[in-house]
Design brief:
The complex is a heterodimer of chains A (264) and B (431). By secondary structure, chain A is an alpha/beta fold. Chain A is built from eleven helices and eight strands. In chain A, strands 1-2-4-3-5-6-7-8 form an eight-stranded mixed β-sheet, sandwiched between helices. The longest helix of chain A is centred in the N-terminal third of the chain and has 14 residues. In chain A, 60% of the residues are buried. By secondary structure, chain B is α/β, with parallel strands linked by helices. Chain B has a seven-stranded mixed β-sheet, with helices on both faces. In chain B, helix 3 runs parallel beside helix 13, helix 4 crosses helix 12 and helix 16 packs across helix 18. Chain B is globular and about 75 Å long. The N and C termini of chain B lie far apart (67 Å). Chains A and B meet through helix 1, helix 4, helix 5, helix 6 and helix 11 of A and helix 1, helix 3, strand 1 and helix 11 of B.
Chain lengths: 264, 431
């Protein structure tokens, strides 16, 4: 579904349903360089099970017009304006990686509108190495290679994809190939420079779920767990075989964790 | 610059991509899941699978765990987003066409094609309202000139039939993309070992897996691979992928899955409705072949080079058509696109016409006379006395085949035995 936010086209996947303000809403916020379809299975489930699903494309990603937003705070405020455009008063936010930081910031900045947040593949601080940032700044192929290889568990290239016939590395590379120059760098820098995590965590008043991949090479589960311990009452689900791309690597386990969380 | 992470090499992917050791029993080899269907955990699980909210298998016409290993492995070897294995290479070509177009659509294809593909495009699909213009592939501009408003696909073979014309994939892909169209290539003769067409700009490819991928002449199969790089939405010519489809829950495949749109419709509609799926036993056979592709192809090519050199030196041979020879029209292109070799299937022209061809074939002892290529065993066929025997010499010439044209598929036997066998045939041909 297309929206207009800040005078530019913005897209949110709604699982072929019209948004109904009377229903609870789950926003899905993707990670650096990716788009709404990264949450394909999970967002579809919620869209067909009594909720508004709104899997967004951040500006400059997927079907949303650019330019990309430079900070996590700006992304969080943009999510709120997207909700306004959809005439949705409240929502829960499921965020992955960069999107998890956005979800965190949404909950901290707009507690009256955010009901629950689920943070997938998250760590704080979300440091990005100089080599990765530099490669992305120069729009070099090795930046996409780092995103792809570190973005999955080590066994992924030698293992099977739960989604029959699909090659996870190829899918990630194809998505990144569609990005405008500079978008991946903008996203990575936003993650790297985000300094509001602990302050945001201290403000959280709503239920929080962490879903962490035990074999995450991008945001190590150990770091995610340490951050989760700073959030009082946070629930944590660790998925043993999964790397950073939890929704693709362990789609059913992620969906089950989300179903339990939203049922609670 | 700091060294970045490294992808597994081709040889490793050929052995491992797509398969984890079996979680239940620890089987290292790919298990053959000889099952039509899969037990649902409960009603909700069943509904979620049908509505594509969960990953998994429902019915083996749509997907099967053994076949999925082959699909993922081929996608890995080709650098695609995914693949669909089919009942044959012809089924893969049909699946690609049927996914992308309707009656009234048009294809621009190379005229240097496998005969079965030529039949499908030139005759059979025409009956269903899909028209094809065939062009000489040596001049990429020919493709551009043949594009019409209703054109939806450009198509060629990485190495054409029968003259091994090398498709200038970068140039033809440029023509295609400037017209908002995808380029599909048949990569059967080259395999991903010799060339990865996506790296040169192709958008879709398929293989007759019956040939070098399986490599042992025991299974018929095909595989269709998508690069995921073609932007169907931006093209605006493919409502099949970018508009709600009543035939599948009003799904807009591109909106639903982005880079996976083509494969999603090809699997969920194409396999569901046309049904040309691959059997798990076939996938197992082809996977066994792929595990040694990186060992077999260099040997195929090395033996072919020796045989090409031998035949080129024989007075009984009028012409050898192999792109590594300087006199081949695509020699320079082959050096650029196929540095590892031009495969192991090629043709040569015997002096003496049809009768010489017959005598040659019938005196061979190691080469097997049959209609296939890409086997571990060496194969030979004389089109003028077999596949094209009804055609006059003049008609043969129009098809690029001479009365003395012989096609070889060079196998993995001792190369000296193969040369000796061919020498015997040449002597018989000249009697």
């Amino acid at each position: 579904m297309n929206f207009t936010v800040d005078g530019r086209q913005a897209f949110g996947y709604t699982a072929a349903h019209a948004l109904d303000p009377a229903k609870p809403t789950v926003v899905f916020a993707h990670g650096a360089g990716l788009d709404h379809s990264w949450f394909g299975l999970q967002s579809r489930y919620f869209g067909y099970h009594g909720r508004n699903a709104l899997a967004l494309d951040f500006p400059g990603h997927g079907r949303s017009a650019g330019p990309a937003l430079a900070t996590i705070q700006k992304m969080a405020d943009w999510v709120m304006r997207l909700l306004d455009a959809g005439k949705l008063d409240k929502a829960s936010v499921v965020g992955h990686s960069m999107g998890a930081l956005v979800a965190l910031e949404c909950a901290a900045r707009h507690p009256q509108r955010i009901e629950r947040i689920a943070l997938l593949g998250v760590a704080y601080p979300m440091n990005v190495s100089d080599a990765f940032l530099e490669a992305a700044r120069e729009n070099r192929q090795d930046a996409y290679d780092m995103e792809t290889i570190w973005g999955h568990a080590p066994q992924v290239p030698l293992g099977g994809n739960p989604n029959p016939g699909m090659w996870m590395y190829g899918d990630t590379l194809a998505r990144l190939a569609r990005l405008a120059p500079g978008v991946l760098y903008s996203d990575l820098r936003a993650c790297h420079e985000y300094a509001g995590g602990e302050a945001a965590a201290a403000k959280l008043q709503r239920p929080v779920l962490f879903v962490l991949g035990r074999r995450d090479q991008m945001t190590a589960a150990k770091a995610g767990l340490a951050f989760a311990h700073k959030v009082p009452g946070a629930q944590v689900v660790q998925i043993a075989p999964s790397g950073h791309s939890l929704m693709a690597e362990s789609p059913d386990a992620v969906l089950d964790a989300l179903i339990d969380f939203f049922r609670g | 610059m700091a060294a970045g992470p490294k992808y597994p090499g081709f040889d490793t992917l050929a052995l491992h991509a797509g398969q984890s050791p079996d979680a239940t029993n620890g089987a290292r080899a790919v298990p053959i899941y000889a099952t039509t269907s899969y037990v649902f955990r409960d009603s909700e699980h069943a509904a979620s699978l049908f509505n594509m909210e969960r990953a998994g298998h429902v019915y083996s016409r749509i997907s099967n765990p053994t076949v999925a290993v082959l699909e993922e492995r081929m996608a890995a070897l080709e650098g695609g987003v995914g693949a669909i294995a089919t009942a044959s290479g012809q089924a893969a070509l049909h699946l690609a066409v049927a996914t992308l177009m309707d009656a009234g659509s048009h294809i621009v294809a190379s005229n240097s094609l496998y005969g079965g593909s030529h039949n499908l495009l030139g005759y059979t699909l025409k009956r269903f309202g899909i028209d094809t213009t065939f062009v000489a592939p040596g001049t990429p501009e020919n493709f551009r000139k043949a594009i019409r408003p209703e054109t939806r696909l450009l198509f060629g073979e990485t190495l054409g039939n029968p003259g091994l014309e090398v498709l200038d994939i970068p140039a033809v892909a440029k023509v295609a993309h400037e017209a908002g169209l995808p380029l599909l290539v048949d990569a059967t003769f080259t395999t991903p070992y010799l060339m990865q067409p996506f790296a040169h700009g192709a958008d879709l490819l398929y293989h007759s897996a019956t040939k070098f991928l399986g490599g042992h002449g025991v299974a018929i199969g095909g595989v269709l691979v998508d690069s995921g790089r073609f932007d169907w939405e931006k093209s605006g010519k493919f409502p099949q992928l970018t508009a709600p489809y009543a035939g599948f829950h009003n799904m807009d495949f591109e909106e639903e899955s982005g880079t996976r749109a083509f494969l999603l419709r090809a699997r969920r509609e194409g396999l569901r409705d046309f049904g040309a799926c691959m059997a798990p036993m076939t996938a197992f056979h082809i996977l066994l072949g792929i595990e040694t592709l990186h060992l077999r192809m260099p040997r195929h090519v090395a033996s072919t080079r020796k045989i090409v050199n031998f035949l080129s030196s024989q007075s009984a041979v009028a012409q050898v058509l192999y792109p590594e020879l300087p006199e081949h029209p695509d020699h320079a292109l082959a050096k650029r696109l196929l540095p590892k070799g031009c495969g192991a299937v090629f043709s040569f022209d015997l002096r003496g016409g049809r009768e010489a061809g017959k005598r040659f074939i019938e005196s061979l002892r190691v080469f097997s006379h049959l209609a296939n290529v890409g086997d571990a065993k060496s194969l030979v066929i004389h089109p003028a006395s077999t596949t094209h025997y009804r055609m006059t010499d003049a008609d043969l010439t129009k098809a690029g085949i001479g009365p003395g044209t012989v096609r070889l598929s060079v196998g993995l036997e001792d190369t000296e035995d193969l040369v000796e066998d061919l020498a015997r045939g040449l002597r018989a041909a000249q009697k």
